[in-house]
Hints:
The chain contains seven helices and 16 strands. It is α+β, with helices and mostly antiparallel strands and 289 residues long. Strands 8, 9, 12, 13, 14, 15 and 16 form a seven-stranded antiparallel beta sheet that branches. Helix 1 packs parallel to helix 7.
Amino acid sequence: xxxxxxxxxxxxxxxxxxxxxxxxxxxxxxxxxxxxxxxxxxxxxxxxxxxxxxxxxxxxxxxxxxxxxxxxxxxxxxxxxxxxxxxxxxxxxxxxxxxxxxxxxxxxxxxxxxxxxxxxxxxxxxxxxxxxxxxxxxxxxxxxxxxxxxxxxxxxxxxxxxxxxxxxxxxxxxxxxxxxxxxxxxxxxxxxxxxxxxxxxxxxxxxxxxxxxxxxxxxxxxxxxxxxxxxxxxxxxxxxxxxxxxxxxxxxxxxxxxxxxxxxxxxxxxxxxxxxxxxxxxxxxxxxx
Length: 289
């Protein structure tokens, strides 16, 4: 029976515990473990999503290897030392230690989610004025860079580019904005060939020596919105990501603050199905569980 991993115990010094990932020090590098924890609206749920950590780890590696010519990233290897617990295999990678830039670098190619809500009120998203008459799912004329804060606790907040520059500095924001949009366009092109629409995504970056590199994860269903292209062409938004859970939670009128409600078995199973489908379509193969 497959074990859902929401908690890790590793005989290494704990470096950090994120909403989904547990990170440990391993020599001068880091061991990053993707658990099956689910974070929605920045709240971690009690139930895990089967296979999720393995999928996030492997899909991030897939993208890290594909995008190295756009920007260097922190991935070193997924060969985990044999003396560490067996459950870490397939859900872990060893990465270079970088100093994180405290911004979520969101790129939107289509209007939906929090961007849609802001647009409906102001006609703008993160201070960027958009054409009139856009609806949920409308493709934008060009992808837009809409950063948010990276909250250690509570909710991340959308900010404008000027606010981002106050946090990270002009040169850094110029670079990560350019690279975020390049990465998004690369991912969008690949997704379209795979039968998917990449609506939006987020990236994280860090300083390593005198360079800025891509860190954390890349273009996963946790950090991105993917829609089935065939359905999109018919006017329907079918999500292969966390949106399925968001929609359920919106439907039960949860206030989006802890404690989280319990998730029904059906919601958990269908979330796994959507993630696995996205993985197969993007990579062309089944997830090796």
